[in-house]
Design goal:
Aminopeptidase; Immunoglobulin-like; single chain; globular; 27% helix; five-stranded mixed beta sheet
Length: 385
Amino acid sequence: MKISRRCLLQITGVGVVVAGMVPRVAFAARNSLKNMRTGVQPNGKTRLVIETALRPSYTLVYGENTLTVKLSNTVGNNSVAAKLASGGLVKTVTQAQIGDALNIVAELRKPIGEIPKNQVMILEPNGDNDYRLVLDFAAGTGAKTATQKAAATNESNTTTRKRIIVLDPGHGGKDPGCIGRGGTKEKAVVLSVGRKLRTALQNAGFAVYMTRADDTYLKLAERAAIAERKKADLFISIHANANPSRSMKGFSIYTLSEKASDEEAQKLADSENAADKIDVSGFESFSKDIRVALSALQQHAVAEMSEEYANGCARAFNRAGIEQQPGPAVRHAPLAVLRSTVPGALVECGHLSNKAEEKLLKSSAHQDKLVAAIVRSVKNYDFEA
């Protein structure tokens, strides 16, 4: 049975956070390899498990008889040797450090197609296990070839509905968000970017809605609920960052996780989630209003779709020459605004606490550059997979 992409997400509520801006610490922990193993699954499938200390950010690269898993911001461990099950497709597994990235290369006995998203999972730590990236695959199976994909796309272009994007300019009203040294308010910058992005995405053929199109205050649950009501295919929350270090600058992108990927991600989650404390009235009902049931498999599906978009968005920013914050481009945090059944990400466009970047973020030309990169990431996102 096919699982709907618009599946239910269990919300446990927002923890107590202090009001006001929480300092954001410039710290990005580096991931490390813990274990590698393969197994044999039913229906002739082989399972590859890569265990890491922190939640992995990965890219899959397919060769003629190889599968390469690129782990960003990860250090290898030569003492870790893969435990290979007999009868599987994997002949050998090796690791190669390429700068800040670690490549895990599986040599295969037979070629495989692109692994479907529902056969890739990231499992949270459990007992003696750390984070596990789990990939299930079989010989000669997977996604369609590029030619088949193009034919299917051409065939469906005339029949499929417009993809629905919900844009969420952060903060607003009595919540200004970050305030730069020159007095620039985050709520104004992200609203300007959001309006431009709406026009650009509409011109590209998407149906676009905004959580706020003016200087309005919205609680986090309301923002997520708008994406649910509109039956959105993608949710993009737009923000600008701040850091105690005035030299810190660059973009970063966040997806939802129950555990933060690093200390800075947790500080950001605390800060953004604190926006709801501005309006204390009704805060207690936040979790009850948005609680729904979600199976583990569905949660993995939403998380993987969000991760794919976030990585694509980071690549678009890099290709556009937009400076990246030191450390991984894609991070993970328990952000209340992303608690939804809709795949999505929170985009930190830059740092208002940095004098030069504050000036950039205010400029129309740089905002246009940000918008063009995000449009490219949406157009490149595989909504069908």
